[in-house]
Structure formats: structure tokens, C-alpha cells
Design a protein that fits this description.
Strands 2-1-5-4-3 form a five-stranded mixed sheet. Strands 7-9-10-12-11 form a five-stranded mixed sheet, with helices on one face. The chain has a two-stranded antiparallel ribbon with strand order 6-8. Helix content is 58%, strand content 15%. The chain is of the alpha+beta class and 492 residues long. Among the domains are: 21-188, no CATH class; 327-484, Heat Shock Protein 90 (2-Layer Sandwich).
Length: 492
């Protein structure tokens, strides 16, 4: 009881886990994360390009002013005009190089010390990214030198000396804007992806999960079988397979319940049947004492039949538990056993059927005599019933059942064949299945199921011979019981 309460408590805790651990929540957070990663991959080169573009704009503005000043006046400009040019371009010095000569267009009174220099004509993508992060992390108080060709005249080159504080400030503003824009895009994209995938995938998966949970609570309720959606995607196909599996499981549960009820009913009948058979056995013993030829002929067969009935009755409880008694293997004469089956079936049915025994009189098989009798008897009885189910009533129709056997090494092969109408397709699909493998209407299919179970208990196999064109034929293969090595050495 304590274990049960603990299990219930654990189940309750598992059921009450926060929704943050659900598949949909994980999908939402993973979508946001992946979109943010994509935005970061876009952000890095875009920031590097912004830095290069900002420097190029400053270079082009200064180049335009320098070209105009150079064309107007070759003389040195007054300091006031230089200060105005420097203020307008946001630089500390402007130098124009032309025809191998350099001219100072404008310069502060105290030129600062340059710590870094950059050539915009030789910028590589990797170098741009490295320079951008260098400015981000360590810039703000440095003076840099930037130079490159004039756009209108590649033969001319402009050179600027400026502080990188405005550049870093511009990059920080751009990075901040890109960051918030990336977050907004990530949230919107994640929301759209989440709702789309939640509707297309998570919703149907949750529906199947809830259905499986409900089905496990009451698997015999037909209303708990999932109704597949009429869609052609993988989840729709999965729902179809789940519905088919649940339907087959319900059918199997019904059959198992039927078998359980049948086992209980047989067990109840068995109690009284054993008393009746015991009385019949005593009367048969006295009947065998009568000095009458007819009685002398049938009394031994009657006694063996009643003995088998008593034995079956004693083992019926074991069969009710879905298992047969372990075979008591002895060497038996197969021709004698097959002849006894033929005689009993002939007396029981009185049908106009020809029996052919193609078995060597000296052929022996190591098996349980009673169980092998039941196997062959069930197969022969099924063949007789198949003739009875034949709708034709032609006196020229051949009604023959053939029992043949041969030994091949340590394996004995037994063949029970008939010239009947054969097995229908439905019976072939459910062969050896109780209540489903019957070849005739109203049959239970238990005969083949019992025969298969007994043959498997002997370590053998029973199959339907598909090579037979007319009628039906069942092939049984029984191996000899292996001898343990220690036993063999002891005998030697």
C-alpha cells in the first residue's frame, strides 16, 4: 500500500509539472534563441560595415573640401578657416596627396599623437570585423589616422587624423538599435513560428497523447479509439496507425476475455465431467468382460478413448492457464497411432471418405502419445469437416484424406492432406489463431491452435503446405529429443 501511495504521489507530481517544461514552451524558447543567433550572425558584419561606411563618409567629406580648397588657393589657409574645416569634417588634420606631393589642408595647433591607422582601400571582411570589435571594446580615447583614394580622382589620396570617440559612439547607437530591433524581430518571428508549429504539430501530438492516456484508462471502451484527422501528413498517418492499433488491441482484449470466460466455464464443467468419466471407465471395464466378438472388438478402443478423455479432463486446468502439460516423450509407432485416429474418426463421422495411410509400419517417433494423437486427430477432424462444408453434392467427387510420414535424419515429417475445398483467404490470414482461424462458419479454430501449441511444445513446427494446388495439407516436423552430452558419455 505504501508503494502504491508513493507511485500515486509521483504520478501526481509528474502531472502537475509546470508548463514551462512542455514541448510547446521548449519550442518557443528554442525559436527565440535560434532567431537571436541568426540576428547576431547578421549583426557582426553589419556593425563592421557601419564602421567602414562612417569612416568613408568622413573621408569623402574631407576630400571634397580639400579638392575645392586646393583648386582655389595654393597658399596656406588661415588658422580660422582650418578650424572651420576641421570642425565641419570632425577631424583634427586633413592632408591631400597629389602627384607625389602632400599638402596640409587643415590642422590643429597641437597635432595629437596617432595610435592607430587604417587604409580604407585595403579593408578585408575579417579585418573589418576585427577592427570593429577593437573599437567597440577598447576605443573612445584614441586618435586614429585614416586614408584612402579620392572617389572622383583615384590618383589623389586624402588622409585624416581624428578621434575615434564619435565613431565608437555612432557604433554603440547602431548596435543598440540593431539589438532592440533583433529582439523585436525574434519575438515576432518566434511567435509566428510557435503558433504555426503548435497548430500543425504540437496540437495533434497533444491530442494523440491525451487519447493514449484516456485509452489506457479504459481500453475496452470503443469511444476511446482516436478518430484520425482527414489529412495526409505524417501525423495524420500516425493517427491512422494508432486508431488501427487500438482497434486491434480492443479485438484482442475481447478475445482474451472470451478465452478467460471459456477457461472458467470449462473448469466448472471439468469438476463434474471427471466424475462421469470415472463412472464410464468402471462400466467399460466390466463391459470388456462380456464374451461377445463385437464387444471384444470395440471394448479396447472404447477403453483407450475414455482413458484419453480422463487424461484430457485432468489437464484442462493447465490449458485454462494458457499452457499445456509438458510432453512425456516416448518412442511410439506412428503407423499404429495414425490407424487408431482413422478408426475413431471413421466411427464418429461415418462419412464416405477414403483414408490413405502412407506410413512405414516400422517408423517410430519420440513424442507424447496422447498429445500426438490430439494433433493428428484435430487435423483429420478439420479435414472431415471441410468435406462437410463443401456445397457440391457430386457422388463422383473424390473425398480422400492422406496421412503420410517419413524420417529424414533426426526429424520426422508428417503430412496430413485432403482433397477438400481448401482454406479460404480469411482462414489463411488468421491461421492457428483461436476463434479467428476457422475455415467454416461457426467454427472456433481451436483445433489448429491446440495442434500448433502441442507441436511447438515438442520443439517442432506445423505449417500449411502452400505447394498443394487442391485441398489443404498441413506439414508437421518433429525433431528427436536431443541427448545431453553427459548422458551420452554415461551410456558410452
Amino acid at each position: 500500500m505504501a508503494d502504491t501511495r508513493a507511485s500515486d504521489t509521483e504520478a501526481g507530481e509528474a502531472a502537475s509539472e509546470p508548463r514551462a517544461a512542455s514541448l510547446s514552451s521548449k519550442l518557443l524558447w528554442l525559436t527565440i534563441l535560434f532567431v537571436m543567433i541568426a540576428e547576431v550572425l547578421i549583426f557582426v558584419p553589419s556593425v563592421a560595415n557601419t564602421r567602414v561606411r562612417w569612416l568613408a563618409d568622413r573621408l569623402n567629406t574631407a576630400a571634397a573640401a580639400a579638392v575645392v580648397i586646393d583648386a582655389v588657393n595654393e597658399m596656406e589657409l588661415p588658422q580660422s578657416i582650418q578650424d572651420g574645416a576641421l570642425m565641419a569634417t570632425g577631424t583634427k588634420a586633413i592632408v591631400l596627396r597629389k602627384d607625389g606631393a602632400s599638402r596640409m589642408i587643415a590642422s590643429a595647433d597641437m597635432p595629437p599623437v596617432v595610435t592607430h591607422q587604417y587604409d580604407l582601400s585595403a579593408v578585408t571582411p575579417v579585418g573589418a570585423v576585427i577592427d570593429a570589435f577593437d573599437t567597440f571594446l577598447f576605443g573612445g580615447d584614441r586618435v586614429i589616422r585614416v586614408y584612402g583614394p579620392v572617389a572622383d580622382d583615384p590618383a589623389m589620396q586624402i588622409e585624416l587624423v581624428l578621434a575615434d570617440a564619435p565613431l565608437r559612439h555612432a557604433m554603440l547607437i547602431y548596435g543598440r538599435n540593431v539589438f532592440f530591433l533583433s529582439v523585436l524581430i525574434s519575438i515576432i518571428t518566434a511567435g509566428l513560428v510557435f503558433f504555426a508549429i503548435n497548430r500543425i504539430m504540437i496540437g495533434p501530438v497533444r491530442r494523440m497523447t491525451e487519447n493514449m492516456q484516456a485509452f489506457s484508462e479504459d481500453p475496452e471502451n470503443p469511444r476511446r479509439v482516436i478518430v484520425p484527422r482527414q489529412v495526409g501528413d505524417e501525423l495524420g498517418v500516425a493517427e491512422g496507425h494508432l486508431a488501427a492499433m487500438q482497434s486491434r488491441l480492443q479485438q484482442t482484449l475481447k478475445e482474451q476475455r472470451h478465452l478467460a470466460d471459456l477457461g472458467l466455464a470449462v473448469s466448472k464443467i471439468n469438476h463434474d465431467m471427471r466424475n462421469i468419466l470415472t463412472s464410464a471407465q468402471l462400466m467399460s471395464d466390466r463391459l470388456s468382460m462380456i464374451d461377445d466378438p463385437m464387444v471384444k472388438r470395440f471394448a479396447p478402443k472404447l477403453l483407450r478413448t475414455i482413458d484419453r478423455a480422463v487424461s484430457y479432463s485432468g489437464e484442462v486446468l493447465a490449458y485454462g492457464k494458457a499452457r499445456e502439460a509438458k510432453p512425456r516423450r516416448r518412442f511410439i509407432n506412428l503407423a499404429t497411432l495414425a490407424g487408431e485416429v482413422r478408426d475413431i474418426v471413421t466411427e464418429e463421422t461415418e462419412a464416405d471418405i477414403t483414408y490413405v495411410l502412407d506410413i512405414d509400419t516400422g517408423l517410430e517417433v519420440e513424442a507424447d502419445s496422447d498429445q500426438m494423437f490430439r494433433v493428428i486427430y484435430n487435423l483429420v477432424r478439420n479435414a472431415v469437416q471441410a468435406f462437410g462444408a463443401d456445397p457440391t453434392d457430386d457422388p463422383a467427387l473424390v473425398r480422400r484424406i492422406t496421412l503420410s510420414a517419413r524420417r529424414s535424419g533426426a526429424v520426422v515429417e508428417i503430412l496430413v492432406a485432403d482433397t477438400g475445398p481448401g482454406l479460404p483467404a480469411k482462414a489463411r490470414e488468421n491461421l492457428f489463431q483461436p476463434f479467428r482461424g476457422s475455415a467454416r462458419s461457426g467454427g472456433t479454430g481451436l483445433g489448429l491452435a491446440i495442434a500448433r501449441e502441442l507441436v511447438l511444445a515438442h520443439g517442432g513446427s506445423i505449417t500449411l503446405d502452400e505447394t498443394v494446388a487442391q485441398g489443404a495439407a498441413f506439414r508437421i516436423e518433429l525433431p528427436d529429443q536431443p541427448v545431453p552430452l553427459d548422458t551420452f558419455r554415461a551410456r558410452a
